[in-house]
Every structure is written in C-alpha cells, then in structure tokens.
Amino acid sequence: MRECGTPDVPSFSALRKLQTKLTTEMGIQTTRHVSTLGNEFYNNGAAQMFNLDWANPLVRPHIRPYVEVSSTVSEFYQAERLMSTDVDLLQLMWADFKNSPGQHFYIKELARLRDGRFVIPMKWLCVIDKETGAETECADVYHVDYEIMTGVARLHVDEVVRILAADLTSNLLDLRNQGLKIEFDNTAPEWTQELSHPVRLKAQGRPTFTLGLMSWADDVSGNRSKQYNAHTNVYAASLNLPHCKLQQEYFIRFGSTSPTATALEQLDGFAEDVGPDCWHEAYDCLLKQEILFRLIVRVEPADNPQQSELCSHIGLNGNKFCRKCHAGGPAREMETHGGYHSLYEEGVARTADETVKGIVSQLVAATHGNEQKVEAMQTTSGIKDPIAQVWIQQLIQKARGLHHEHISSAETQDLRLKNRKLKGEARQAVKNEIKDKIAKDLMKWLTEQPAHRYSKLSEDSPLRTQIRPGDHYNKLLVLQGLDVHRDTAVELLHTYLLGLDKYVWHVSHTAWNDAHRQLVAIRLQSSSVDGLSIYPVRGQYLVKYRNNLIGKHFKTLQQVGAFHLHPDLLENEHGGLLLELWKATGELGALLFYHAIDDMSTYLEDLEVLIGNLLDIWGAIDPNRILNKPKIHLLQHIITDIRNGGPAILYSTEIFECWNSIFRMCSVLSNHHAPSHDIAAAIADLERFKHQVSGGWWRGEHGSYVCAGEGVREMFQMNGEIQRRLGWADPKVLSPVGTVRRAARKKRTVILWEVSCVEEGTHITVDACTSFNPSYRPADTLWEYAQSLVSRSTDVCKEGSWVFYDSPREAESFTYAGRIRRIIIPASDPRSENGLVQVERFAVSGLPDTRMNMPVLYRECASILIDVVPVKNIAFIFNAQHDCLTAECAVEDQTVHQERRITSLTQKAVRHGAMQRYFVNMHALHNAALIRSTLPRHLSMPKPYFNDRVAKHQEFADKVSSVNSKRRDATAAKARDTRARKKQVQELQPEML
Fold first, then answer.
1. With 0-12 CB in 10 A as exposed, 13-18 as middle and 19+ as buried, what is 760?
2. What is the mean predicted confidence (pLDDT) over 772-777?
3. pTM higher than 0.70 for the full model?
C-alpha cells in the first residue's frame, strides 16, 4: 500500500493490535481445554459464535424461533420431531414485539384472553396458511376455570386448544398487578405450584429464545496435498435458519480442531455452552435490545463410522452393526428365516439410557479384570464407548495386577490364602471377597479420574462418587434434547451415494468386459443434461476411473445410467435384474433428494415401497449383500428420520465438507506448532471480520452497541468477490421469475413473425394444428430471438429445454409438456413481459413404459404442434431422455474438438435417430416433486416388486444358509488339512535329526 502511495498506512503490528482489540470486544475468545484423556485443544465457544447471529442484520431476520405448522414440510422446525419434543426444550416465551414488546408470555404461566377466559400456554407455534402462505403466531393452551372470589384455579389438561397468540392480553405479571390471587387446586400438575416460570426471573425483563443446533464432526486433512495431515474438526449450524441459508458457508460456525483430541473429546468442550439451563446474553439487532438465548443440540449429521462413535456404538463391522436399532447378531442366527427377515425391517430402537447402562456394566466388569466378559458384552449389545474403552483397558490391567499381587503371588498374596487348610468353596469364597474388594477400590479410583477434573468438583458434590458423563463416557448420551441413536440421521452422501449407488455401479461394471465399458462410456456421453442441474456427463472419465468415483459422479449415474442399459449390457449372470436394480435406485434417489414434502403420509408410503423394492432386488441378486453391507439395512431408518426431522437433504454433510477448505487454508498458512490454537484463533478473526463487514453490532469499548460505518457495510453489499469469499449468496443476484435474457448485442437478429414460425432447415410452416392467441403474433411487429427465460420455478430455460407449461387458451386450466423451439421478444419493446415462447407440444402416454417404468413423450400427429405462450405460462423445466433402444440409435464416428477447434481426430458417439420418442426422466433430482405433482398419480405411484416379501426373504435365507454352510465347511476342512500337515511336519522333524 505504501508503494502505491496510500497515505496513513499503519504498521503491521498496529494492524494486528487493532484486529485483536476488535475480536476481544466482540467477545470471541479462543479458550484452552484439557480433555478427559489429557489431550489439549482450543475451541471457539458455541455461545460466542451464535451470539453473533442475533446481532447480524443479514442473519437475524431469518431466525425462526417457533415451531411451524405447515402442510409442506421443508425445514426441521416444521417436522414432527419438534411437535413431540418436551415443551421445556422449545421456545419458552412469546411477545407481540410490534405492539407490546415488553409484555412477555411464558409457557406454564396463567394468562388471560381478550374474552376474559383464562389459559395456560404450553407451546408457541407459527401456523402457515396453505393457500396464501400467511403466517399466524398461535399457542397450544390448556383452559383454566378460575374463581375470582376464591382465587382457586382448575386446570383442564385433558384437552389442548389452539388459539391466536394475539388474543392474549394479560400475562402473569399483569394479573398480579390487577390484584388477582392465584392458587391451583390439588388436581393440577406439580409444575403449577410454581406460578412464575423460573426463566422469567433470570431474564429480568429481557426476551428469551431457544436455538436448535446441528453439530458435525469428522476427520479432515490439514494439507492440500495428498499427504494426509489428520485433524478432527467440529462445526455447527443453527436449525432455526432455513435450509437455503444453511447451504451457504457463511452460516456455518467453526467449533474446534485438533490433531490429537477425538470428536467426543472436543464435543465435550462444545457441550459446555449448550443445555436447557445454560443461558447466554446477546444483542438482538431486530429488537434493538439485549436478549437471552440458549442452545439445544438436536441433530448430529456425519458419516456412518463417525455417527457410530457419537452413539458409543461398536461400528459397522460388529455383529450388532446398526447404531439406531438392535438389528444384527451371530451369522447363524441371521441365516434363519426370522433373523434374515429382521434385517429388512427397522428393529427395536436403541435408547441413550440403555446405552449408558451398558457402558456402566462394562466398566463394572472391567474392575474384575474380566476382559473376555467385557468383549462379550460389547459384541452382544453393540455398545462400545471410545472414552470408556480407555478406562476399561486401564481397569483390566490394574485388576489383573492386583489379582496377581493379592491372590496368585505366593509372596504377596492375602494371608488367609496362605492357610493350606483353606480349600474348596471356602477358599473360593475368600478369593471372591478379595476380588470384590479390589473391584470396589478400582471403582473408587475410577470416580477420582481424571484428576484435573475431579479436583474442580466441590467437596459436597454427589458427582465425586459417581461415574460421570464426559469424564468416563460419552457426554452426548446425557444431553437434554438429544438422543444420539435417534438423532444421528441417515445421511445421503455417505449412505446412499457412496453406499447403495456405489454398490450398483460396482456390481454392474465388474460384470462388463472392456468392449461393454467402452460402449457404456459412449452412451453416457450422449445423455441430455438439460433440466438436471449437472455438467455434461464425462462417460470416458467415469469408466476409466470407475473405482475412484466420488459423490457427484454417483449422483449423475443415478439419474441417467438406467437409460443406457440395453440388452447387450445385460448378458450376464444377473440379467434383467441389473436393470431393475438401476431403476429401483434411480426412483428411490429422486424421492430421497426432495427439498420439500407436500404430503408427508403419501411420501413416506411411497418411500417405504421403493426402499423395500431396492432391498428385495438386492436380495434377489445377492442374498448375502444385506449381511455384508450394513448401509443397506440402515437405509430403512431414513423413513423415521424424515418423519421426525423433515427431508433427508436437510442433514446432508456436503456444506460441512465444503467448509473444510476454509479450515485447510488456515492450517496451511499456520506454522503447525500449535495447530488447534492457531487455526481457532485465525477463524475467530475471520468471524470478527465477517461480522463487521456484514453490518453486525457489538458492544464497544464504552459499553454501548456499535456497528461498522456505512462505507464498510457498502463494501460488502457491493463487492461480489468479498461475498463469495465469505460464503454469502446474495438472493438479489437471482433473476426474477419471467425474465427474458436477450442475445448479445452483436448476435441479435431482427425477424418477421412468419420467419419465427418456420422450422430451420425444413421450412415447414406452422399449420392449422397450431394453437395461439391472435394478439400474440401481430404481423407488423419485428421480433428478435432471445437466449433464455426464467420459469415460475426460477429455472433458466433455453431453446431445446423440455418444460411443462400452462395452456395458451385462457379458458383451459391444463398443463402440457413440450420442448421450447424459440424464445422471441419484440425488437421495439424488449421487456420481459412481452416475451413469447414457441413450444412444440408433446403428448404424455397414459401408461408408463413397460421396460423403463416411466411416462413416454411422443408427437400427437404427423404435423408439428406448436403453442405460442407468454413467458409467465412456463411452469418448470424437466429432463427427458431419448428412447435410443426403440429408435435404434447408431454409434458413429464424430470429429473431436480440442482447444475450441475441430481436429482431424474422431471418436465414437451416439447419433440419435429420427424417432421422436422420449422418456420423462423420473430419476431426475431437479424438480422431482413438481414432476410427480403435475403428472397423473398412476404414472409415478410405486408398486411393490414382490407381493409376498416375507416368503421371498425366507427363500433368500435358505440360499444364504446353504451357501454360507458350504463355505464354513470348506474353511473348516481346509483348517483341518493345514493342522494335519503341520502335525506331520512336526512328527518328521525328529526322524530327520
């Protein structure tokens, strides 16, 4: 800056000093933690990070504090989980901040309505009207009969009534000021005895809010190179923000990182700021006052091994391989009819309380030095806590040493055991007594560990004699509001894309030879990607690196792969089942990636059928697969997860994986001497900068709340590069619905209306079959071709895009399917509302195609039907794939383009035939819900693959049992032969000597 002549450039040390001062003023502190296992790490407290959300004008307006009641479920706060959550863990307070901001109503407090009735609110809600989208704040209440003369109140807990929150006129404080004496009769619940909510006293007149959190943990490399530099990271996001915001890096909060401390150790430090009784101060820039808020962890997304660790579960390789239920068991048991069929269903759900009891039992068994018993308990129950395991190993080692000292060693054994007359049961009783004493002493030793934490407990604390969460086992098991078994939701990236999709791809390409694979590559590259929101398919890459694909590749294959499995690729042992497997995977994948669910019951019914179909087809191809691949069983739990928490995509971990790039750069630019501290401090400084340029408020050095100047705020608002680097996507950048984009100035061509209605190359004029509104084509108007338009669903549609559009006749309320031929706009008045779209209409078949199970698009008559419609009539885009099998599309040589030039090289490519027959791609993820809501229900309703699933599963079980029994017999015979040979060698060795 000095070289450029900039005046008043501060020194580098002065800049750093100012940055540190501002970060400290904001209350962002990087604090040191020592874990229960002695590992040191630093974290940026969760309360400090989410404190900034309330003071940030770009975040605060989007926070949704209330449970929402909506016919469409697209967010966590709209799903069933919060509706059934303990009301003490939800939003406690409501106020009419516009008219009476200081009048706060709390749950479980008496209040009066406008009509004079008395009620006790139990839950605050926001009800969204299905038709208009209008939001109304409501409350679920109990009615109260109150005798003014006696002051006795009777509560009716047998009926919950929903009222408008605005009808509340007097809260408990108002009633007391009015001189009302309140006393509930003896039939009321115990909580009514404390008339005032305890949080009201803590709040001291400040509003209170509850935020739900989603915390994520995983191992990440701190290097950009291939050399792995292992770190374990913890991030978090607010579940009270809409999903469209949570898919931006701007809204992800860093917690901690460490190359030594595990996820559970770091989450123990993270949990210090969360809980129903842990309140934090913040400044609300919307209300312009101080508030109190608390954090409740509700969801733990991660990959499957990490989620097993968070659940204190033995992992996917254990006999009890499911972290969410008790599915699994010994191999022979799973090969029985009942055992095998149980894997195709959700088992008995695990609970956190049950897991804690199992961990305590293992610790008690370890104090007796019985390692085999502990391992048997872990194998049988599937419970294996990483933190408790460290103590178990120490306890077993200490117990064995003490047993040797007091029982086995002749020199140091208990004096009673030196008595030779003590024999039989009496001697064994003494040994048992000694072992019990050792176990008791070891348990006392355990409760005093770790020493650095035990010393901080008060002398009268009951925890001094207890096994403590966080110190001796996983603290997540006892967090209020979280059940780790239920709330480690099945995640799409690692379970479906890198699980089921990957299995399908592997079982397919391993059965093909090189010629088949080359053919697959050619066909994949011919796929139409318009309407899929993906890049052109790189078939050669997918085939060449078939064993090293990542999630985005499997997402592409899932959407287009099934169309290219012609009979010449199904000539293997699996035959037509392979096509059925691809179809089942694609159909299910399209539903799983819904971002909004309009009819939850119908959606879950369809999902159950499709998951059952996929599992059954896998069983028909390889009955052993579900025994060897736990993700197949885990997929069934996604139904409950969606019912509880909303669409599965809400818990996708891609955004956290993207955030790793920020962490990685902080790691690369550090000196690696204190990685946990340096990275956390660097990100704290980044959060401070982000908060300031966003216009966020903080308490200044004089005690008042301040924000950055107008010039700093405008820099962020006007500078797209800064927004991009901070992970912010400005919604204003999106083009509004109905926008028509004109061609570049040099490429604009002015034409007559008649010319626009002629098909290029054939000069076929639109004939009498054309339907149009005469006012749409004035003959004396000049027109120009446009590049694209924005549909009602905000899709960008171009020439050749397949769309659903409304009828051009105003009297009809009908939706057609068609392909955009041209987008035109008047040259003299090129406003978007004047734009017209010429759409070639296609008919949708009444029944799905028998082979692909998808609707077919075809021309209704020999002439080309073209509808001319205004831009506003274009509803949404969809993907259609050419029926190459029926059209007998040929593979021909095609010139290769390199460096934007035509070369003399050629490559094989598909040349689509003239037959105009297409499939509506029902495997497409983009607009999957809109496609299914537009088409008749019978075209998309799934049907069970097997009518009698139980009988089929029994048949599969018999095959599995037969195959595995033969395999075990062969293994046993081989082992016998090996032992016999070794014995023979040992017998011959003396003779040779």
1. exposed
2. 45
3. yes
